[in-house]
Amino acid sequence: MIAFEPHSFRGAAPVLVRQLMSPSVRSLPVDGPVGEAFRLLRETGARALPVVDAAGGVVGLLDERSVHELLGDRRSVVDLRVGAIMTAGVEAVAPGTPLAHAIRSLREQRVGALPVVDGGRLVGLLSTEQMIGAFADLLEEAPVPA
User: Fold this and answer.
1) Contact, 98 vs 124, CB < 8 A?
2) DSSP state, 71?
């Protein structure tokens, strides 16, 4: 369940990314093997994971669609690295970013999730699934016009 009331969208403080993001998120190393990335996506049930460099900075996003498109009929991706198939340059958001900005960013970048970064450190992930779930909750709680 979301941590805000349906009426909070009008005349109140904006809904922030921190209210919907997943605070515990796994990441993938940019030079890690694609096979390991695929295993981690399956194991965690995540649709996307942030990709980080050696210093822990977010450098991209790897989503399950990219991995599935790559694999196709192939069964071996031994030599392929995450950096070769990730979406690079994904704009990260801060926990205090208004949700409306994050939604626009997702749409403009055509990605399914945004890394959440605080002080250069990865602190979470915000997915379209979380936003759709929040919107559904709001619609269920909204009064039905007579």
Assistant:
1) no
2) H
